[in-house]
Write a structure and sequence with these properties.
By secondary structure, this protein is an alpha/beta fold. The chain has helices at about 1-20, 50-60, 80-95, 120-125, 160-165, 215-220, 255-260, 335, and strands at about 70-75, 95-100, 145-150, 175-180, 200, 205-210, 235-240, 245-250, 265-270, 275-280, 295, 300-305, 305-310, 315, 320-325, 340-350. The protein binds flavin mononucleotide.
Length: about 350
């Protein structure tokens, strides 16, 4: 029974691949047997020996270290259209970013479609699993994984199947999105569901090359994503610094509320005195400065009415500040901020 189901699934994949490009599909008889790609049954239960060899290759690898972040954006991009959109998504959410890189890179010839090129042949064989270079991400700590890919003959490139079979996505919310020359997302997202059946799949979206960051932000804001703040109902501010996320409590000041209303915002922060990073806002905030007497590492303060300061050392002070917030876990803060200027993305979420 299971075999029949597999054959049916394969037939559906082949038909749907052809349907996106009626009359234009490359020769589906040629199959693929070159050394650049490896075939495996696309099912996940390990029923074929081919499949288990591929799963050993992908799942047996060392995975990347986790950063404590709860969202990952994984992307595959050969000609550079999908990559910036994935980067926008990661910046907007403050997510980790992972590039799905093929072990054997695609040459120009490999992607000259409708020439029976490597990509054409891979797309015509639902069992092909192009190998991924390097370590796969450890997805165990992520609650949301976004997967970005180009449309290849109406479908996701087969390397996306390699990725989905190689990582653990049970209980994870998966958000597919793609770029294409003109096709819609079609069945490319729903055909991936069988490869991670225990994930919660959100309907995918297609974007044109060159889509603006603002459009990606509007799309993300409209998604029904789970809470990734680890919060308790309070308003939480997150600071993303070089891929690491730090949670911060928002102070009960008007200035803090006003700052929160400006977020998300990435600030290029300058180094000062070996204990703080600061950046000037274009806007002014309603300051109500007081002398705290002492600064604690993790304090986020307003100096004057438009200078945001993040302290990474504790010391006594005679200066006056308005409280904006406080980073909760500061152990890794100093190292993340580094010794010079640094980009910090502030976002706000209801925990
Ligand atoms: C093998 C191959 C097949 C493609 N098939 C389609 C297609 O069916 N429909 C479409 O609109 N674009 C198709 N394209 C164009 C890509 O989807 C588009 O250029 C995409 O933005 C490339 O993303 P990237 O620059 O991130 O690799 C295809 C490109 C290649 C290389």
């Amino acid at each position: 029974m299971k075999r029949i189901w597999i054959l049916l699934l394969a037939a559906v994949l082949l038909v749907s691949c052809g349907m996106e490009n009626p009359g234009k599909s490359p020769d589906t008889q040629s199959g693929i047997a070159d050394a650049e790609t490896r075939s495996a049954q696309p099912e996940k239960d390990g029923s074929s020996s081919d499949e288990s060899s591929v799963r050993e290759e992908t799942q047996g690898r060392e995975t990347t270290e986790t950063t404590g972040n709860q969202t990952l954006v994984a992307y595959f991009s050969v000609t550079g259209n999908t990559k910036p959109l994935a980067e926008y998504a990661a910046e907007i959410i403050g997510a980790d970013l992972y590039e799905i890189r093929p072990e054997i890179p695609y040459t120009e010839e490999d992607i000259r479609y409708y020439t029976d090129c490597r990509a054409d042949r891979e797309q015509n064989d639902p069992y092909v699993r192009p190998a991924i270079a390097g370590a796969l991400p450890d997805t165990s700590s992520y609650r949301v994984v976004m997967i970005a890919y180009p449309i290849w003959h109406g479908q996701a490139p087969r390397i996306i199947s390699t990725f989905l079979e190689g990582v653990e996505l049970a209980g994870v919310t998966v958000v597919p999105f793609c770029t294409s020359a003109s096709s819609g997302i079609g069945s490319s997202d729903t055909n991936l569901h069988a490869l991670a059946p225990d994930a919660t799949w959100i309907k995918g979206s297609r974007f044109a090359a060159g889509t603006s960051k603002e459009s990606i932000q509007n799309w993300i804001e409209g998604l029904d994503l789970p809470d990734t703040t680890g919060g308790n109902g309070d308003t939480i501010m997150t600071l993303t610094i070089s891929g690491q996320t730090f949670f911060a409590e928002l102070a009960e000041t008007e200035a803090a509320q006003s700052f929160a209303s400006l977020l998300p915002r990435t600030l290029q922060m300058s180094e000062l005195n070996g204990n703080e990073k600061y950046a000037y806002l274009e806007e002014t905030l309603p300051a109500k400065a007081e002398r705290p007497g002492r600064i604690e590492a993790g304090d986020i303060m307003l100096y004057g009415n438009n200078c945001i300061v993040v302290f990474y050392e504790s010391f006594g002070t005679s200066y006056s500040y308005t409280r904006i917030g406080k980073v909760k876990e500061t152990a890794a803060l100093k190292a993340a901020l580094g010794k010079s200027g640094v980009s910090v993305t502030f976002t706000i979420t209801d925990g």
